[in-house]
From TrEMBL:
GO terms for cellular component: lipid droplet. This is Squalene cyclase N-terminal domain-containing protein. Residues 13-161 form the Squalene cyclase N-terminal domain. Pathway: Secondary metabolite biosynthesis; hopanoid biosynthesis. SUPFAM superfamilies: Terpenoid cyclases/Protein prenyltransferases. The lineage of its organism: Bacteria, Pseudomonadati, Nitrospinota/Tectimicrobiota group, Candidatus Tectimicrobiota, Candidatus Entotheonellia.
Length: 161
């Protein structure tokens, strides 16, 4: 086991505190860029289609962005510099299909191949399955159900909400 010397730990803490204080706004807050993965972008397309309010010009720009983030193996990453992620790739694929990109377009062919290589829809995260169910592309009965009684479990129980 590697043990850090206490003085090195104190130095690291002081350097971290100094950095935070030097970047703090006069009113006491910090400003920093927050980047998200493409799932939010894909989900924006889902939302606009669900509410029936699609701006095709904006959607074309969104598709261009999604395509710019596609990895060489056909997938999309969950985080910057990461490998292809199954659910992120499924959501990007569905968003582009909703936006009118043909299933036989090369980027979507590559995405399908990657989706299958990563295990397919059955291995996707629950939220991805819920989004697909909203569009009739996944059975609602395939979505896990959590008994509402779990909310009543005490905090001392080995798991709780």
């Amino acid at each position: 086991m590697h043990v850090v010397a206490p003085e090195r730990l104190v130095q690291a803490i002081k350097r971290s505190q100094g950095y935070l204080v030097s970047h703090q706004h006069a009113d006491g807050y910090w400003v920093g860029e927050l980047e998200a993965n493409t799932t939010l972008t894909s989900e924006y397309i889902f939302f606009r289609h669900l509410i029936g309010s699609v701006d095709r010009d904006r959607e074309a720009k969104i598709v261009a962005y999604l395509l710019s983030e596609q990895l060489p193996d056909g997938g999309w990453a969950l985080y910057y510099g990461g490998p292809s992620d199954l659910s992120t790739t499924i959501e990007a694929y569905v968003a582009m299909r909703l936006a009118g990109i043909a299933a036989d377009a090369l980027p979507l062919q590559l995405a399908r191949k990657r989706i299958h290589a990563l295990g397919g829809l059955s291995h996707a995260r629950v939220f991805t399955k819920i989004f697909l169910a909203l569009f009739g592309q996944f059975e609602w009965r395939g979505i896990p159900v959590i008994p509402p009684e779990i909310i009543s479990l005490p905090q001392s129980f080995y798991f709780n909400i």
